[in-house]
Amino acid sequence: MPDFQQSALIIVDVQNDFLPGGALAVPAGDQVIAPINALSQLGFSAVVATQDWHPADHCSFKKEGGPWPAHCIAASEGADFPSALNLQPVSHIIHKGMAQDRDSYSAFFDNDHETSTGLDHLLRGLKITHIVVCGLALDFCVTATARDAMRCGFRTDIALGACRGIAGDQTALFSDLKAQGVRLMEHI
Ligand code: VGL
Ligand code: ZN
C-alpha cells in the first residue's frame, strides 16, 4: 500500500445516477460503495470525491446530440452522493462537466485538455506524489482520471475492486492502462 502521508484517494462519480435505478446506471455500480468506505478510512492525506455536475442542456445529453441520457444535473438528487457512501473522510469535492459545450470525464481536465479543474494544483500544494483512483465508471471517468494523474506526474494506482465499468470486457483497457504506467491493484 502507498505511503499515506503523500497519497490521495480520488473517488470518481459515486453518484445516484450511476447506481442501479439511476439515469445512467453502471452495472453493479452500488458494489463499489463498501470497498470505497473501507479504502477512505486508511489514512490518506487527502480524500477527493468528484461529482459529475451538468447543466440541464449539457452537450453530452442525447437530446443535445451527445452520447448519454441526461444525468447528474447539478444539484439534482441524481447528482447527489448515495447515502451509504461515507463522506466523513472526504476532504475535497470537485465538480466537473459544468460547462455546457464540453464534457469532463477526468477529475483533472475537461476533455479539451485545456481547462483544469484545479485538482492538479490542489494536490501539489498538499505535497501529494501518489494517487489511488476508484469509483465509476471504470472505462470512462476512472480511466480518464488515472491517465491524467499519470500525465501530471503522480504515481497512479486504480483500486479495481472499488470500480465498476459500463462495458463487460475490460481486457483491452487494462493492457492500455498498464502500458501507460498505471498500476492496477487487484486485491482491493
Ligand atoms: C461518466 C459518462 C458520462 C462517468 C460521466 O462518470 O464515467 N460517464 N458522464
Ligand atoms: Zn456526465
TrEMBL record:
Gene3D superfamilies: Isochorismatase-like. Coiled coil: none annotated. It is an enzyme of class 3 (hydrolase). Residues 7-185 form the Isochorismatase-like domain. Pathway: Cofactor biosynthesis; nicotinate biosynthesis; nicotinate from nicotinamide: step 1/1. The keyword DNA damage does not apply. Its EC number is 3.5.1.19. The keyword Ligase does not apply. Keywords: Hydrolase, Metal-binding, Pyridine nucleotide biosynthesis. Belongs to the isochorismatase family. PANTHER family: LD05707P, PYRAZINAMIDASE/NICOTINAMIDASE. This is nicotinamidase. The lineage of its organism: Bacteria, Pseudomonadati, Pseudomonadota, Alphaproteobacteria, Acetobacterales.
